[in-house]
Amino acid sequence: NNPCTNGQCMNNDGGYNCICSPGWTGQNCQQDLNECVMQPCKHGRCVNKDGGYNCFCFTGWTGQNCQQDVNECANNPCTNGQCVNNDGGYICICSPG
């Protein structure tokens, strides 16, 4: 019988201690941490879940914490111009004429 709901139980003199798994806290690792308080999603919306969190990235961003800029120029969106990738988007520099 493990009293540590989301962790590892360590016996000690006359009792026990819990070593909580990531995302959990409390004497028996029963309380979910709200990781979103630390604002881990650099360019996105954080949603807390049991034992962790999910980031939903804003347009132009990707990665586990929405920290990586998407290279929109990779798809050649500026058909007759030059594409310049920037943070979270891109601009087209049109050719003369």
From TrEMBL:
Residues of the signal sequence?
none
Q: Name one Pfam family in it.
A: EGF
Q: Name one GO molecular function term.
A: calcium ion binding
Residues covered by the EGF-like domain? 1-30, 32-67, 69-97
UniProt keyword Cell inner membrane present: no
Q: List the disulfide bonds.
A: C20-C29, C36-C46, C57-C66, C73-C83
InterPro entries, alphabetized = EGF, EGF-like_Ca-bd_dom, EGF-type_Asp/Asn_hydroxyl_site, EGF_Ca-bd_CS, Growth_fac_rcpt_cys_sf, NOTCH1_EGF-like
Keywords from the named record: Disulfide bond, EGF-like domain, Repeat
Entry keyword annotation includes Repeat: yes
Under PANTHER family, the record lists: CYTOCHROME C OXIDASE POLYPEPTIDE VIC-2, SUSHI, VON WILLEBRAND FACTOR TYPE A, EGF AND PENTRAXIN DOMAIN-CONTAINING PROTEIN 1-LIKE
Instruction: Return the protein name.
Output: EGF-like domain-containing protein
